[in-house]
Amino acid sequence: MSRGSLAGELSSKPPKSAQTQQITMTDRHSPVEPDADEEDTEMQAATAGGIPLGGVIYSFKKAKRNSLFYSGLLYTTFLAIFVTITMLIRPVDQTFQIQNAIIEGIAKDDMDSPRFEKTFFDMANYGDFWVWMFEVFYGNVFEGEWYNGEPRNRSHEYEDVPVMRYNRLQTAIRLRQSRVERDSCKTEEDNHELSRPCWGDYGTATAVTGNKHADRPTTDLTRWSTDLNYFEGRHDDGKQYKKSGYYVDLPINATRTLEILQTLVAERWVDENTRGIAIEMNTYNPAYDMSTVTRFKVDIRPGGLFIPSIEIFSARLYPYTSSIDGFRAFLELVFFFALLYYFWREGMEMRTEGWRYAQSFWNWVELANLTFFVVIMAYWLRYIGTFGPDRVSFKEQSVDKFQDLYTLTQVFSFTANMAAVNVVFSFVKFFKFLQLNQRMLLIWDVLTHAMGNIIPFMAIFVLITFAFTFAGHWLYGSRVFEFRTWNVAFGYLLRTLTEGIEYETLKNASPGATPLYVTAWIGIVTLVLLNMFIAILTDSYAFVQSRTKRMDELERDHVEDKENDWLLFLRSKLCCCFTPRNHETEKKILQLNKKAREMKEVLEMVDQERLWHTVLQTVTTEKDELSVEDVRPVCRAGHEGVPEMFLAGLVDAQQLTLDKPPRPATTMMEIGSLQTQISALEGDLQALLDINVIQYETKPSRPSSRAAQYSVGGAGGGGPPL
After folding, report:
1. Percent of the chain, pLDDT > 90?
2. 629-671: pLDDT as tens digits
3. Do 279 and 295 meet the contact criterion of CB atoms below 8 Å apart?
4. CA angle 457, 460, 462 (to 5 degrees)
């Protein structure tokens, strides 16, 4: 039989369950068949008392797996394209090689200090800054000869100044600083005879603005500008110096740069007025076609603390030049149209669902995911479009002029960081497709069930941590780096949960309070709160595990083919590349597809997410049936009054039997049965005892014969004496 004839046979003879046939069958001798309305009425009457819960679970999963299969396959392809594009445009391993070489070679190289070895991160005073500038920065950037003493090749048309061997300087190096006015501190002059002169913290009111000779370095090499690139100090200690400041450009010439640096030292270019310093260097790696901007920053606080830090960004300035770039451009086009499709689908779902759309957690995840994708694309278009002219200027080396590569690479880096955040949302969305298998969704179900207890627990945890944060900040902030600000202290306390606390460092700062502080922190947070958190998750895991086990037991009685159910489903989805081996398999596949279509129509009558939530609640109540009253709240508009239609349609579409399958005996059931029998025997025994006591008390005299001793109440009664 051909596939077409078989499909016609199935469509002309819809299968019915034995229960359905029994319900719709009239008098077998009647020549008139019952019409559809009578069948529907009788089916609704039969299902009014409820239908087996296991059948609902199995039917719902079968119906959902059709849509989830195609949606999951499409989304997996969509996400794979996104990951491929991101990996091609930003090769992480190559970026690591370049950036780590610069950091290890310049920032972590030792200074030849007369007292002890220091690196850039150990900088503590003005002298350290200039020692690092001459011996480390200048020595590594303008390394003029090979290790055997031979001079480097200068035969190129450009200045071949390799930074860490393979990264060449693209432009001049910029040295800039932000300064404050003299006597800009807030301390009153009358407070102390040493209160003047003083230099306050950097801010709008204290910053030096304009080309003021008295408050700027006196060398003619220094320039003032309000149109520099954005400069911000260390994220937790520094200030926002913004786009104004003094700067000196160091050309790509070792001799000339050395002369400029010596002049800056002679003129005391860095002094008490200085609050922020930045050395900005642009390099290019020809092997990876990647440009890198490195910014060495030093924040100088009014208390005398030097805070060094580094910013480094890398980017491909010409991302559409190779054959691989052409392939990536094709993927970007496919990704763009796929994104439009997802927005169209969400819009249609909003239109259909109305206000119910906002009640679904997965819809919010979907919107957040798509919003991030739009932001990523917007910044990428800005990178390749808005900065087009600026990018062209980097094709040639600029020996004497500095060019802003920082702003360009920062946009690229922000785009990559947004992609990193969004990929988390993207993979969280996979939990939606894991509904195909309840056990694969176990972790998500545990977290969902525990969330009701986790939220108040986290509120208490944060409250206690805040208390220890301020206490630690006040106790150790003046001596311990990790407690210098309250936000840094808060982050440090969170890290101690996994890394441990540095007891000796804290004890040196405050010997008296440290034992009590550390003991209280470990006792309350580590021993009590963390174990409570584990207990919450353990309790939820036990609950979800028990619920999943019961769902499997209820569902097991309604699975048509336990071994080949999923195999048959996959074959039905891959029918384009799979030819059934026999007529029976082809018939099963067509019947499976027909059931899926019918079930899809039935589920249109209810809110599917709320229905599944109702099913889970019913499972936990130890009920074996889903009643009409359970279904009524989840019916959509237009179907609120007829939930019986949904139950009847579910039974008919999936050929469910309304007979309750016998539940397999378990140990607990046997124990319960024995307890019931024991209780019945105890009741019977107590009744016999009560009868014998009454008869014994009403007997007039004790008989002397042995036979009379066993008689109770004369003839007809008998039994052993009490």
Report:
1. 35
2. 777 787 776 555 567 777 777 777 666 666 555 555 556 667 7
3. yes
4. 105
The pLDDT tens digits for 295-354 are 999 999 999 999 999 999 999 988 998 899 999 999 999 999 999 999 999 888 888 777
CB atoms closer than 10 angstroms to residue 449: 19
**Burial level of 398, CB count in 10 A (0-12/13-18/19+)?**
middle
* Bigger pLDDT: 26 vs 444: 444
Q: How far apart, in Å, do the first and last CA atoms of the chain sit?
A: 83
| Mean pLDDT of the region 598-608 | 77
Higher pLDDT, 698 or 515: 515
Which two tokens mark 461?
């945890």
Identify which has the larger pLDDT, 465 or 164.
465
Contact assessment for residue 473 and residue 483, using Cβ atoms and an 8 Å cutoff: yes
The span from the CA of 141 to the CA of 162, in Å, is: 7
DSSP string, 89-133: HS-HHHHHHHHHHHIIIIISSPB--SSS-B-GGG--SHHHHHHII
Q: Identify the CA nearest to 108 among candidates 294, 268, 259.
A: 294
> How many angstroms separate the CA atoms of 499 and 261, rounded?
43
The three state secondary structure string of 549-614 is HHHHHHHHCCCCCCCCHHHHHHHHHCCCCCCCCCHHHHHHHHHHHHHHHHHHHHHCCECHHHHHHH
pTM of the model: 0.72
d(CA 547, CA 539): 12
Judge whether 397 and 158 are in contact, CB under 8 Å. Answer: yes
Residues whose CB is less than 8 angstroms from the CB of residue 109 and which lie 6 or more positions away in sequence, other chains included: 119, 120, 136, 140
Residue 453 CA to residue 419 CA, distance in Å, equals 32
CATH ID of 437-559, from 1.10.287, 1.25.40, 3.30.1490, 1.20.120: 1.10.287
Please name the residues in contact with 689: beta carbons below 8 A apart, sequence gap of 6 or more.
722
Interacting residues of 505 by C-beta distance below 8 A, sequence separation 6+: 480
Contact 497, 508 (CB under 8 A): no
218: nearest Cα among 267, 162, 159: 267
Query: Which distant-in-sequence residues (6+ apart) come within 8 Å of 362 by Cβ?
Result: 429, 432, 609
Residue 364, token pair as written in the block: 């919010």
- Cβ neighbors of 110 (< 8 A, separation 6 or more) are 117, 118, 119, 136
- Numbers of helices and strands, H then E, in the chain: 25, 12
3-state class of 676 per DSSP?
A: helix
701, with CB counted inside 10 A (0-12, 13-18, 19+), is exposed
Section 408-433 average pLDDT: 88
